[in-house]
Q: What sequence folds into this?
């Protein structure tokens, strides 16, 4: 059974870059067929999709965050990462990594299915 | 930044049927299928329904989904105490490239 685990600093200063890593176990990122996602949830609020990456490096980002987001993959470590630049207090949230590809919807896309437990990142000086 | 609208709350007694609505637009629900997630307190969301009405393995058939036009619904029949959770609809949106949008979320309370 695949497992995903987020890691990274829990506190980031305003204007700096938030960096998180998701370590995948129980499956290989390089085996293909899956899309590796980042999703966040502001405290007490709903969910916001940040983007995803295919093992080949193709990326898709939320237009509202695209100018500040970079998602990358390191197949040698079986990890993928999120970088969000120029953060403000509005970026304080629980960040989840997730895998999509286990279920195909008839739109032609794959909904995020397996999720990590999430990690809280607070932006504060 | 939610573009899918859900009622903030819904409730029912054990055994009842509860329905949650999700309203979108032509660029998301109107042209793509709908997925539903269940988020129990303090946990990550779990995929409950995909492709409008398909259940992943392990999801009880008490949960069902439907879609019509730019709206969708999730129904929980035979409500149980363990169904008390937040529920989110989601769909792909084609308006500005392709991206995934979530609903505002509905808190289901079992009375």
A:
């Amino acid at each position: 059974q695949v497992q995903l685990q987020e890691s990274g600093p829990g506190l980031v200063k305003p204007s700096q870059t938030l960096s998180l890593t998701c370590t995948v176990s129980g499956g290989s990122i390089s085996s293909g067929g899956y899309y590796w996602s980042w999703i966040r949830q502001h405290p007490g609020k709903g969910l916001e999709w940040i983007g995803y990456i295919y093992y080949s490096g193709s990326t898709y980002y939320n237009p509202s965050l695209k100018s500040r987001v970079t998602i990358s993959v390191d197949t040698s470590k079986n990890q993928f990462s999120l970088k969000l630049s120029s953060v403000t207090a509005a970026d304080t949230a629980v960040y989840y990594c997730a895998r999509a590809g286990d279920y195909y919807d008839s739109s032609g896309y794959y909904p995020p299915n397996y999720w990590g437990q999430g990690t809280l990142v607070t932006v504060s000086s | 930044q939610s573009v899918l609208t859900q009622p903030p709350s819904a409730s029912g007694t054990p055994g009842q049927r509860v329905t949650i609505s999700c309203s979108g637009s032509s660029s998301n629900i109107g042209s793509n299928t709908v997925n539903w997630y269940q988020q129990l307190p303090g946990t990550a969301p779990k995929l409950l329904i995909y492709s409008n009405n398909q259940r992943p393995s392990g999801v009880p058939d008490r949960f069902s989904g439907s879609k019509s036009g730019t709206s969708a619904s999730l129904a929980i029949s035979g409500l149980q105490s363990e169904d008390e959770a937040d529920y989110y609809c989601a769909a792909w949106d084609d308006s500005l490239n392709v991206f995934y949008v979530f609903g505002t979320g509905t808190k289901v309370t079992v009375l």
